[in-house]
């Protein structure tokens, strides 16, 4: 039973990590957090509102609505090119019609998001190894597969857990700066990618427990056959 559950858990975790890795700006519905700007001014009865979603390799800016004297103008949505390490640059601030917030996002923290594809690759490796655990009648091969699954699974679980804490730290840091440095014109919301990677971490750790239990169960069976 454990030999079947472990690959299933690893497969689900791999899919979650893959989707998070392919988040904004590639998959626009999956993101770590979004920033919503709603700036208004009594001067000229003007206002601007828009939002930007941030993912592992960049961001996507929604269409910005600008109102002047009751006349509505809308700018088209656009996304950055996928790259590692980004920040809230002046161009993004200009698009949202806000200024002075260039230090909201740390480039070092966004560069650390590279752990997501690394965790995804390690989970895929553990998934491949776990498939050999399902072979019956080959106790030696199954034991070796369990050992490799356990080793790669532990490494994948550790990297995924670290990536989750980096995500939480990134979003919490930006949220803190938004609350302290803005006057309510800018708000931040958590994205679905953070909870997806949490689910992946839980799934991988559960798979590691399953691989360990399968390994211990195989050892007991071998001892029983010996005596």
TrEMBL record:
A Pfam family hit: SUR7
Subcellular location: Membrane
One Gene Ontology cellular component: plasma membrane
Topology in the lipid bilayer: Multi-pass membrane protein
Keywords: Membrane, Transmembrane, Transmembrane helix
Record field: transmembrane: 108-132, 144-173, 193-216
Chief localization: membrane
Cross-referenced PANTHER family: PROTEIN DCV1-RELATED
Protein name: Pali-domain-containing protein
Source organism per UniProt: Athelia psychrophila
